[in-house]
Amino acid sequence: MRSFLLLIGSLSSTTAMATSLSQYTLDTFAQQLSVQYELISAKPEKCPQPYASCYLSRLTFSTPVEINSNQWSIYFSQLMPIYHTDSSQFSITHINGDLHQLKPTAVFSGFTADQPISIEFYTQDSQITRSEFMPNYLLASKGLTSRVINSTKTSIDPQTQLELQPYLAEFLTLDQLQISKEDATPWMGAAYLYENESRPTLPQAPLSLIPKPMSLQKLSGDGVNLSQGINVIGLDEQQLKLSAAFGRLAQLGVKQNELGITISISLGLSSPHSEAYELQIKDQKITIKANTDSGAFYALQSLAGLISVDDLTIPALSITDAPRYSFRGMHIDVARNFRSKAFILNTIEQMAAYKLNKLHLHLADDEGWRLAINDLPELTDVGAKRCLDLTEQQCLLPQLGAGLDSSSAVNGYYSQADYIEILKYAQAHFIEVIPSFDMPGHSRAAIVAMEARFNRLTAQGKNVAAAKYRLREPEDKTRYSSIQHYNDNTLNVCLDSTYQFIDKVLNEVNTLHIKAGVPFKTYHIGADETAGAWLDSPSCKALQAQQPTLHSFNGYFIEKISALVASKGLKVAGWSDGMSDVELANMPNNVQSNAWATLSESGHEVAHRHANQGWDVVLSSPDVTYFDFPYQSHPQEPGNHWASRAIDSQKVFSFMPDNLPAHAEIWRSVRNHHYSADDRKTIRTKPFIGLQGHLWSELIRSDQQAEYMLYPRLLALAERAWHKAPWELEYNKQGTKYDQHSDYFNVDLQQQKEADWQRFAALVGFKELAKLEHVGRFYRLPSVAARVTNNGVDAFVPYPGLTIEYQNSVGNWLLYNAANKPALVQQVRAISVNGLRKGRALKVD
């Protein structure tokens, strides 16, 4: 530090401003520069033109030493573009996507030691959860190696093991939680939870399991004690196919043993459901009858569901079961921020444990391409990592606060061997992998990678080969901005090379499935959120001239790719907004549409329309199935915010997927207002095929964070995908209008739902969290509901069986005892089953 001070101090102000930094100076600058970001207001009184909605922020810089040079800049991620600043000393430029550059201007007079300098700025739209404010600001200077500014790095809280953002000032007011004057989003602190959450009522886990079976009857006679293991008879040739289920039982302490409880497994059950099974436990033996191997697999998973990690006894009972939906899925985005192979394998295990059977793997998007493809090395050499190379010949731009380390957890890809292993592991767990490389929008990683390939081969004089898979048309001067603010993320749908590229990728993916011995059944093309591209594309103008009746370039693309996918014997799938652009007559017969419009904005209409036209509709309603949104509307709770401010497990559990418009009675909009849903003009005549949860990864930088967002919500998703509860409001086939006054979901149904929730919550609290912990999954610990009463502070969590701690008036943490309520409490928090991890603490007011 002393040598740095002498170096800077020895330069006159005029000279220093023009003098380039040395690498040592830049390194020290990055180590010592303090950056503090403050969200002043998410709903300022007035926004500078041209935007009606914006948010006001402040960046404050300070250093312990004098710095006069202005030969530097800072690159940082800001999800929404900054469009107005108040500073004469700094300028901020939007580069692309979320990347911005801050530079000192000609009037910048340098940093005086310990004298902060601030810049306030307005950003369009809204950004209100702490996790939306990205880390890893990059300090750069021409000719030098860039560095991450130390003060902008995240850290891990040793108590909660959750991510901390020391560069981001604390959020304290509703101005930092609500996005407009009309926004009624509540601050879900301890008092709010006390008034609005269900207090547990069951003192122990009931005789049930997750997901709930169609029928479970307790029988007279002896049950079983599985502590001595199990002895499997029958279906010897099939046991290998069921090995994953036996593996889960072994994880929980039930191993195969010739002296163990006898399990008899047979196929040929008379049932119209291929995944149906019957399970009987009586008189020291277990009998399983199933239609297929998958039914037998789920029977064994139910056996695992009936036990606890500390209690391997099961009473005599009989279960008859079959799934509600044939499609019970989980979507994992590994493109924005990468998820390790281990995470995927672990997730497959838990999906299967709760009878989910489809893994929609989102392998490519603007920020990353995550699967190695033969003959196209740039897809992973360039497209699978981010760094500060503005030419993007070595990597993609450092979006989403990616930093500079190409080996960090947010970067990476699956080798072909990795993908084959994932396919085989999924197959062993009776899960179909549905790969997706989003297109034609959300394709920037592919576009940039293939441009790097074009440049490499052109330099070698291989012009024909270079052009074969090029995805960009240099003569296309169209100006557009995608929903994530990219100006170059959309494939040119009028180029032959675009279709050659897609055909190549599909063929290579199919080859991997063949090598794995796992059929390639469904391909998800994406097709969502396509920006207004191609208006000034010469190739598109030529195509329009050739086909004057062409209704939509995006529709043309989807129809053409759908035909290509179908020609390979695959089912085509896509997001509902893009799939709505097509002419139905031009589509294959076998089509899947993921309906993802928000329910509070008439989302039922597109889901009904696509089902009615004969497509297989998978419900993907963001208001309830997007697990990248917060569990609760609280500044410390990570997640996105545009479709919902709070999706806890009870909301997922409360979903009535067969009656989408009915939720207008029981839920509110994203701004916490009542809404109405009129189904009289969009009556559904055909059923949905399934339900899918979603874990998008823009704001999730680690596998551990991803598991926090998944569990225990995945269990509630599985409950609704497998089991239709009797309290769910039946769909009105004549159509009706729902709102807070329509009162179809009557008191009796509400009471049934509450009782069912208590059953589910007790199973989670007394049994399932311990199982998740036993296999190392990082589940979310619930926030504690608490209020000061005349008898002291009353506190509870939604899942019984968990321990609560409270912080007393002098700051010590003590165990909470409901029978002896403390009088003076500062904060409350839950403790994990094993006692090693603490939940997020809430103040008690």
The fraction of residues in strands falls at 15-25%
Which range best describes the helical content: under 10%, 10-25%, 25-40%, 40-55%, 55-70% or over 70%? 25-40%
Helix/sheet category: alpha/beta
Measure the end-to-end span: 45 Å
Shape: globular
- Spatial order of the strands forming the largest sheet: 20-21-23-24-25-26-27-29
- What is the CA-based Rg, rounded? 28 Å
* β-strand number: 36
Please work out how many helical segments DSSP would assign: 21
- Mean pLDDT, to the nearest integer, reads 95
Catalogue the unreliable spans: 1-16
Main β sheet profile = 8 strands, parallel, barrel
Summarize, please.
The chain is α/β, with parallel strands linked by helices.
What does this 3D model show about the protein?
The chain is α/β, with parallel strands linked by helices. The protein contains 21 helices and 36 strands. The strands form 9 sheets. The protein has an 8-stranded parallel β-barrel, surrounded by 7 helices. A 6-stranded mixed beta sheet has the order 12-19-16-17-15-14, covered by helices on one side. A 5-stranded antiparallel beta sheet has the order 5-6-3-8-9, covered by helices on one side. Helix 16 links the parallel strand 26 (591-595) and strand 27. The radius of gyration is 28 Å and the shape is globular.
Q: Notable features of this structure?
A:
36 strands, alpha/beta, 845 residues, disordered N terminus, eight-stranded parallel β-barrel, 26% helix, globular
